[in-house]
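Key idea: predict the complex, not the pieces.
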Amino acid sequence: MPWDLDNNRPIYLQLMERIQLDIVSGVYRPGDRLPSVRELALEAAVNPNTMQKALSELERSGIVYAKRTSGRLITEDEAMLKQLKNELAQEHIHVFLEKMDKLGFSREEILALTQEQLKEVE
Amino acid sequence: MLTKLIRYDMKSLNRFLPVLHIFVLLSAILIRLFVTGRINPQSTSKQIDFILVLFFILYFTIVTALSTGTYLLAGIRFYRNMFTDEGYLTKTLPVANSTHLLSKTIAGSIWGTINILCIYLCTYIVVYTPYIKSVVADNKEEILMEFGFTGKYADLSFSTVLAVLLFFSCLGSISSIIMIYASVALGQLFSSHRVLGAVVSYFAISTITSVLTLAIMALFGHETRLIVTAGSMESNFNFISYMIEVMKISTILMAVTSVALYSMIYYIMDKKINLI
Amino acid sequence: MNPILECYGLTKSYNKMYNALNNLNLTLKRGQIIGLLGPNGSGKTTFIKLINDVLVPTKGEVRINGMTPGVETKKIISYLPERTYLDETMKVKEIITYFSDFYDNFSADRAYQMLEDLQIDTNARLKTLSKGTKEKVQLILVMSRDADLYVLDEPIGGVDPAARDYILSTILNNYNENAAILISTHLIHDIENILDRVLFIKQGQLVLNATVDEIRTEQGKSVDALFREVFRC
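Result:
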């Protein structure tokens, strides 16, 4: 199944986000080997060069690292993973708050509504 | 590459042509069995003459259709394989245009030659009945004399005559094939009426070559002799020596026109062809 | 290593009044998947035919791996025209033999594997197959070669979406850094993600030559959206 990508933003950014999400959500565990560029490109149905660029960017951020013989591995640096997780969470919360803002809710109302919703889910 | 191309060109022609030739061969055998072989010379009547003429016309038509069909199919193969949608594959094979042309010329000529041999065989079957055979055997000297197998031609063996005939037929089919291909190639230059262009080109080329042949024959003084001899049956006219002269001139003419047309086809294929 | 494709002042006119391709200058490197985009009649197919030597340029020249089109370039280009170019009376397996006979870089095994994946009967004669199936057979033949340059003219035009996905993954599978793949299409949306670079052709001229991510970063929109803008009627 090709990855669901937004047409208006650079593809490599979206590929990075998707892989980061997979790392944070545990699809890949710390120390796991990532599939090869070709495999990932095929899975995502994107150009291998674009996938290559996304992985290089992830490498630069330190979230994955290259090992000479065994391809790219997920970092085992728990602190870094935790930070990534927090960053992603913050992004989502930011988007959420923006939308609620547009709907005209005040901060207090948002908090109250969220707490109520959480109780219901439980 | 050339042998592979020839194999595929032959394969394509082999889809129809053997059937066509076997059909003609069978009809020749039938005509021999039921018509020419049954003629009893003692009881010839006007009626039988009429039937005989009818069957010879029929036979002649069949044979002409066979030749036309053979060259037409070779021409169609050339056209379809080089200039229609199929040309997109043919033209993008890693093969030079000259090799394509050579392959198609060889395949076409092989079938042209088979065609002529088949016609010889059919004519032999239809005409050479036991009765004719006995007549020929009885009057061998006279017939040979009539045809002019005298003097320096007296020693011509049957195999020599056959070899000459075979060579001439082979050359004839090569030149006919080249003429067909030349028409198809020229037709491509009429960008909106390519098939019509090919037909027109064919008539144009054949008219030009016939006029040329007649002119050159006249130049060598043969044409006049043919007319004179046909009229008065001069005793010094020697059919064989006349035929040999004609063959010599036609051989040279066919060779020259074939080389010229072949070069033209190659030029068109290499420089002028735009597949639309 | 030579660029896989170079054009210098490449011009083609079918009649004196009008140039189907007008002074095209272009260099393409290996290792890319390139989209050749333009509306109908913009000169895409003319350009592709010139690369494949089925058209003779009016002016200028095109070079493939440094060579003018000819026997040597045909060995390294695998070309899918926008029409059915196979002898319809042949069987699928006969055509595979045909390709094996003429192309040294053709892999019959790969072709049979793909035919099996798409459940195409190798004993069927081409004329008995549907138009879409014929297109698939042609694409399989073309992609079963280890070529340096693949030139695909409208490869996904006539096939259903499921086959489209298979075809795109076949193209991706065949990608390697020594080869380049040039795809002409008007179905930009479907192939945008697999392209490195796009070329926009308008009235026989190159109006844009950029990578997909350049376009998205700089313009903030998809190639598809940009295309609609550039070629607005």
